[in-house]
C-alpha cells in the first residue's frame, strides 16, 4: 500500500510506500525536506535495516481528457484523514494520482509528475535558521584588496617607520644651527678693501708678478652687477680688490654672535675655514696673474676675467663663516661682501624684507656650513648725536690719509680682534625684545 500526500511548500503530489510513514525525505520537485504523514490505521513500521531502502514510486496515471463523470464513488476500504495544517486538501492513500474531478486540464497539459520520482528518506534534523548578522554578511558585497590599496598601505607603513626611527633613535636631534636671525638695513657705506699679498704668489717669477701689478695700477679691471661692483687694482703690496654697492642694492648686516649655537660653531671652525679659504684665493690669484701674462704675450689687450669674480673677487673679501654662507633671495644666492666683529655684510636687492642664510654649495653640491636660518630685515635705529662741549673741538679730516685695507694674508687672517674703521659701525638694534632660537 502506498502513501500519497502533497508537499506543503510546492503542493506537488508525492507517493511513497507505506513503510516510509513518519520519516523525513526530500521533495523531488522543490528539494525541501518534508515529513511523510502516518495514516491513523497504518500498521507499525518494520524495523529499519542498516541500509536505507530504495523506493520506486508507481508511475503517474496518464491524464484523462474525458468530460467529468458524476457517478457515485466506490466505498474506500481505508478511511481518509483530515488535511494537515497548511494543506489545501486531504487525499486518499488508495486512490491513484489523477486529475481531480471537475478540473479538466487544457489540451497539451502535462502533469507535474510525468516521470518516476525517487524519494530518499533522510534522518530527522532541525532546520538551521540564519541570524540577521549572517544574512547581512551574505547580502553585503565582499571587497577585494586591489594592488592600489596594498600599495597605499605599504607606503603609509614605510613613512611611519621612518618617522618613528628618526624620532626615537637615540642621539638624533633637530639641527641646532637653525632658527631666526635679524638683519639690519644700513646706509650705503664704504666697504673694506682686500689685499692679496704678492709674497703669497709662490711659484711665479717675482719679475712677472711685479710687471702685472705695475700694469694693473694703470688699468683697473671692473666687474659689475646690479648689487656689487668689483674692482681689481695693482698695488705695491699685491692685488687690491674693492667692492662697492651696485645701482640696485641694500647693505644688510647680520649679527651672527646673537645666536648661541651659530656663534659657537663660528669660533670652533673659523680658523680651519680661514686657512682653507686662503689657499683657494691664492690659487685663484696665481691663475689671474698667469692669464694676464698669457694675454700680454699674445698681444691681446684684454682677457676674460669673469671666472675670477667669485673665487678671487668675492672670495678675497671674507674668510671663515662669511666665505661659506650665502643669502638666498628669490632662489638666487648672494655672497657675503664683508665679515667683521661677528657681523656678516650682504649687498641684496632693494626692498628685501626676508631671506635665507645657508651654506654655499661647491662644484660637487656639498656644503661646509650646515646651518639654515630665516632672516627678517629691519631698518637701522636712528642714533642721537651728542652735543659738543666747549672743550671738544672738530678734528680736521686728512684727505691724504692712508685707506685701511683688509690684509688677506696669514698675518691678519686669523686675528678676530682686528678692527677696520672703514667698515660701517655695528648696527644698533631697536629697543624691543627679539628672541633667537638657540
Average residue pLDDT:
74
- Major β-sheet annotation: 7 strands, mixed, barrel
Number of strands: 17
How many domains in all? 2
Q: pLDDT below 50 for ≥5 consecutive residues: which ranges?
A: 86-92, 109-117, 388-423, 431-438
Determine Rg (CA atoms, Å): 54 Å
Strand order of the largest sheet: 6-11-14-13-12-15-16
Portion in helices:
10-25%
Shape: rod-shaped
Portion in beta strands: 15-25%
The first-to-last residue Cα distance is 107 Å
Order of helices and strands: EEEEEHHEEHEEEEHHHEEEEEEH
The count of helical stretches stands at: 7
Given helix and strand content, the structural type is alpha+beta
Characterise this structure.
The chain is of the alpha+beta class and 438 residues long. The chain folds into 2 domains: 126 residues, no CATH class; 216 residues, no CATH class. Helix content is 22%, strand content 21%. It is built from 7 helices and 17 strands. The strands form 4 sheets. The protein has a 7-stranded mixed β-barrel with strand order 6-11-14-13-12-15-16. A 5-stranded mixed beta sheet has the order 8-9-10-7-17. A 3-stranded antiparallel beta sheet has the order 4-3-5, with no helix packed on it. A hairpin with a 6-residue loop joins β3 and β4. It is rod-shaped and about 145 Å long. The two termini are 107 Å apart.
